[in-house]
User: Which sequence fits this backbone?
């Protein structure tokens, strides 16, 4: 069942034509990796899915982007609902300057969840799902900044999980982390895929090959190739794709 | 568990499945020979397709693992060893198919009894035991067991060395069965080669576990 | 002489020039402080602080002056803080960043530099005459509020600007509305900076004399103000009044009052610096 669908999507930052005629279908409960050299448009496309590009001056789009069959850019869309449904984890861990508990509870509180017990349960559940609970359960009141980089990123994942999304967007989530933390995050992604649909932008091709089911290769704003990951990495159809993954350019 | 571990585990199981299948082919082959059973021989010929299919699948899996997970160290050696081992197993399967074809064509004639003189049954037994040991060695990652292979292989070599003499005698006594005798002679040579293939497999197991290269008489630690 | 030697010489020259300038400024300040303290410290006692002004120097005290200062400070704070912070939030977070916005930004900064007596004249016309507040605390605090409003607005905007984009992104990404993001994340994160700005603005207001003179604060107020419509005086005015008298005792009074005023200013600035340091430690982007 396709959960994300792009039809002839184009995107512009002012005069800069950032995305050209993107057509793609992403299925439920899969991990899809977006790869490509810097400036190829993969992050732009990712951020269209939860409309984070709205905050960039001069951004406009053409074409249709559907999530669960509904146009993300339709007039009556409620951004708060969209972003509850489509969560995002950013490149540098960006926990709020609050306690660990409050970080995860934030998404619930702003939606009016008032019941103390419910909040506590959902915070615990999310921290468990993000494989962080055992490390922080005795210090939930401590500042989020007392955690290491890898832990902070897992906290950000827990924060996203707390509002029960179905899609999780990840924008190079491990690029600022050390190898051990990175591998923990990758293990987490492998587990989360059973319940969520994950789209991850990454510069690290080994990471893409390790954790994704499908890979999309972007170049200069176009989607060059999109296929099962094991096909892309053993026998890509497009010469440009092959040049990129063998490191001959980009 | 890292995804790579899951993949490697599955690969090992597939390899052992192929090994068991090839061994089973030899067992059936021997039975077909003893009982001059044409139908059993036909079965073995058919089943060779399955052996080939397994080789292709294992090769593909190895390619995927190398491309997607870029394994290093022991994991890398395991994948490289597996590629070679399954090639060796396929060659063994091929030879077994040849033997089964021969049995199929000559089952009605009494010439199969001549195979006793060549001790072909003993040779096949030797191969089967060696394969069983190899399966054990792979399963338990036991390099000592793997290296004991050479002793058993020498038994095959002995029998094989004797073969020309036996052939000469038989041709003298039964010149009308020249073709069959020559074919049986070829089979002993091929069975001896199975022993060699299994010795290769043993070498790959040692390479995987200990990073030592046994072939071509070199026994050096690889860096 | 090689290049390296010349450069090193210039380096040393600059270093010593800097030390000289710094020391000169400190020495002058020290001279001033020592002078004042030696003149006025002895005069400070409970009687001084709690007495009404008088024609007799020994009996004159700063009670009305410092209560007036406290009143002015409080009222100015109550008026200017909500307006200033809200305006700062609106301009920084909600305003569209176009040419008009930059003109507004420049002009607000300019307003902070307008001589305070002009504010006094403005206050005289609008608050004292048109709105008929008279020469009261209310007129004075509205006038001072106008004076320090630009400072608060600029400080608020700077504090909000310092909050990194990633924090807002995280909040929006979770599905918070703009207002929720500002109220629950941006403002708390900027609060240290805003508070620092407010305190600095208020400590400026403490020392302002000219506009208050213009709107009619009196020099001789023999009663403690009890409501916003009362007439009043403030510390700087009292000081000015005393040091204009020929008698030496009044000069001593003036010195004593200056010490008190300096104390108030130092304490307020000290609080501002402490808060700013505390805030900077808490938020490590």
Assistant:
């Amino acid at each position: 069942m396709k959960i994300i669908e792009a039809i002839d999507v184009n995107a512009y930052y002012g005069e800069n034509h950032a995305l050209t005629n993107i057509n793609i279908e992403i299925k439920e409960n899969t991990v899809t990796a977006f790869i490509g050299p810097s400036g190829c448009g993969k992050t732009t496309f990712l951020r269209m899915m939860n409309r984070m590009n709205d905050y960039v001056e001069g951004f406009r789009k053409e074409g249709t982007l559907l999530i669960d069959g509904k146009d993300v850019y339709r007039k009556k869309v409620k951004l708060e609902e969209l972003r509850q449904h489509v969560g995002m984890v950013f490149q540098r861990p960006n926990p709020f300057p609050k306690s660990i508990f409050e970080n995860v509870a934030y998404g619930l509180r702003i939606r009016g969840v008032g019941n103390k017990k419910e909040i506590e349960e959902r915070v615990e559940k999310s921290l468990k799902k993000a494989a962080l609970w055992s490390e922080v359960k005795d210090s939930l009141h401590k500042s989020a900044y007392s955690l290491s980089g890898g832990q902070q990123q897992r906290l950000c994942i827990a924060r996203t999980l707390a509002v029960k999304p179905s899609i999780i967007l990840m924008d190079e989530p491990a690029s600022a982390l050390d190898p051990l933390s990175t591998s923990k995050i990758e293990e987490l992604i492998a587990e989360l895929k059973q319940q969520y649909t994950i789209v991850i932008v990454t510069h690290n091709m080994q990471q893409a090959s390790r954790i994704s089911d499908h890979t999309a290769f972007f170049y200069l704003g176009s989607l060059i190739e999109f296929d099962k990951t094991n096909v892309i990495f053993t026998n890509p159809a497009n010469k440009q794709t092959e040049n990129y993954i063998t490191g001959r350019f980009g | 568990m890292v995804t790579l571990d899951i993949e490697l585990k599955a690969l090992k199981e597939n390899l052992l499945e192929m090994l068991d299948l090839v061994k089973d082919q030899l067992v059936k082959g021997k039975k077909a020979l003893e009982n001059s059973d044409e139908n059993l021989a036909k079965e073995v010929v058919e089943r060779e397709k399955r052996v080939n299919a397994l080789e292709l699948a294992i090769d593909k899996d190895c390619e995927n693992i190398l491309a997607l997970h870029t394994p290093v160290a022991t994991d890398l050696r395991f994948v490289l060893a597996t590629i070679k081992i399954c090639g060796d197993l396929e060659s063994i399967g091929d030879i077994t198919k040849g033997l089964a074809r021969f049995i199929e064509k000559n089952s009605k004639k009494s010439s199969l009894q001549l195979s006793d003189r060549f001790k072909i049954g003993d040779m096949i037994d030797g191969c089967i035991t060696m394969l069983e040991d190899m399966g054990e060695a792979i399963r338990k990652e036991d390099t000592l067991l793997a290296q004991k292979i050479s002793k058993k292989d020498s038994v095959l070599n002995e029998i094989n060395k004797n073969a020309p003499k036996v052939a000469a005698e038989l041709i003298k006594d039964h010149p009308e069965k020249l073709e069959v005798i020559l074919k049986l002679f070829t089979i002993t040579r091929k069975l001896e080669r199975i022993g060699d293939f299994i010795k290769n497999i043993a070498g790959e197991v040692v390479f995987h576990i200990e990073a030592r290269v046994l072939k071509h008489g070199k026994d050096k630690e690889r860096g | 002489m090689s290049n390296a030697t010349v450069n090193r010489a210039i380096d040393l020259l600059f270093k010593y020039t800097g030390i000289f300038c710094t020391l000169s400024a400190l020495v002058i300040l020290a001279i001033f402080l020592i002078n004042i303290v030696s003149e006025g410290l002895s005069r400070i006692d409970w009687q001084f602080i709690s007495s009404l002004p008088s024609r007799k120097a020994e009996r004159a005290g700063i009670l009305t002056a410092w209560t007036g200062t406290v009143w002015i400070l409080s009222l100015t704070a109550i008026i200017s803080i909500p307006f200033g912070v809200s305006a700062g939030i609106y301009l920084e977070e909600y305003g569209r960043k176009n040419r008009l916005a930059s003109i507004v930004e420049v002009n607000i900064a300019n307003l902070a530099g307008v001589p305070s007596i002009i504010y006094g004249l403005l206050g005289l016309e609008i608050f004292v005459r048109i709105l008929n507040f008279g020469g009261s605390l209310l007129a004075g605090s509205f006038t001072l509020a106008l004076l320090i409003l630009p400072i608060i607005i600029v400080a608020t905007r700077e504090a909000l600007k310092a909050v990194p984009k990633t924090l807002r992104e995280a909040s929006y990404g979770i599905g918070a509305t703009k207002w929720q993001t500002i109220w629950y994340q941006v403002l708390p994160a900027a609060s240290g900076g805003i508070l620092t700005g407010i305190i600095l603005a208020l400590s400026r207001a403490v020392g302002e004399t000219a506009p208050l003179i213009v709107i009619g604060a009196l020099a001789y107020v023999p009663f403690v103000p009890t409501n916003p419509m009362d007439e009043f005086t403030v510390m700087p005015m009292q000081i000015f009044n005393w040091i204009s008298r020929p008698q030496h005792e009044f000069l001593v009074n003036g010195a004593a009052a200056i010490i008190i005023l300096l104390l108030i200013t130092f304490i307020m600035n000290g609080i501002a610096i402490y808060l700013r340091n505390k805030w900077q430690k808490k938020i490590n982007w």
Remarks:
- Residues 213 and 219 of chain B are 5 Å apart (CA to CA).
- Strands of chain B lie at 212-213, 220-221.
- Chain B has eight helices and two strands.
